[in-house]
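Regression test attached.
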Amino acid sequence: AGVRCQAQAAGDLDRHYMRRCVELARKAAGHTSPNPMVGCVIVRDGRVVGEGFHPKAGQPHAEVFALRDAGDLAENATAYVSLEPCNHYGRTPPCTEALINAKVKEVVMGMTDPNPIVASKGIEKLQGAGIDVRVGVEEVLCRKLNEAYIHRMLTGKAFATLRATLSMNGIVTNQLGKGADLSGGYYSQLMKEYDGVIISSDLAKMSTLPVSHEAGANQPQYIIIAQGESSRLHIPSLSEEHASKAIVLADSPITVEPAGVEVAVLRQIDLDSILQLLAQRGLCSVLVDFREAGESFASLLNDFQEEKLVQKVVVEVLPVWLASEGLNNLAFGGSQSFPLKNVEHREVNGSVLLEGYV
Ligand code: AOF
Ligand code: ZN
């Protein structure tokens, strides 16, 4: 019984340190794409001696920051890392070498890296150097942290999330219109964490573009769908500063104002092509507003479940009653009914958030 007790205690500690890795990794939310968010904690004799996270693509990986933080104390320590350490020379040298040089005794990882240039080679390299390796601590949490990165790696498409905001009487509000100011700040958080947001040219022409109001947030790229537009599209809400972050997808040649906005002419605008194009450009995740879907994207989203094009649905229910008078209340259904999976809910500033997977 004594031995079992010890094993249990060690397991709890492993999970504790791995959750800390995830917490550290999330500090860079919205900044790492197309790289994953990764956190690392170095523990020696039951004490945390180093911590680090990957701040941005092109910068050193989480392990490097944590090892620097630990200095000589990394020797004989256990390194916890939310993702399998890399074993390749990319923009930075391999983390496996850094861990081996630092003489850590053990590496505990949340999950293997789906990136084909890493995939289990990191584990093999560490084991070959005599380092103990354990994989799969808090794996569900680690996978959720990088669900978009994993999806892009495995499918070559961006991870798409449908979202909407509802009043308590079931009216779909537009974040940019009625009820916008009543949101609990969740939309701002999404804008910070998602790499892109798909909006229609109608919406882009009419209103201000959605942004994150969080301090230091990375703003998303705007993917503006100009289907059946005339040869000229003026987007007054797009400041020159944001123009470089926008891309207009059109089905025929088009001149866009302000100048400097990139235009891609696609023979056919469908969700599959859009998500592939975004993935090629290094975007891992994209949001689609389903009020927008109701207006002009219904055909884009048709059979999204069957075609596995949309992965997630998030709905924010605001603690308000909205007048329906004069409101063009659009719902979007697609052609199928189905239950969502792994649904979670929580409260943010008085709003209820529901997240589920297709
Ligand atoms: C890790 N720790 O913190 C990160 C990893 O272009 P590079 O050199 O930064 O390589 C990017 C790849 O490295 C990325 O696709 C993923 O496989 C891995 N990212 N690995 O051990 C980290 N960011
Ligand atoms: Zn690395």
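Expected vs. actual: identical. The chain is about 30% helix and 25% strand.
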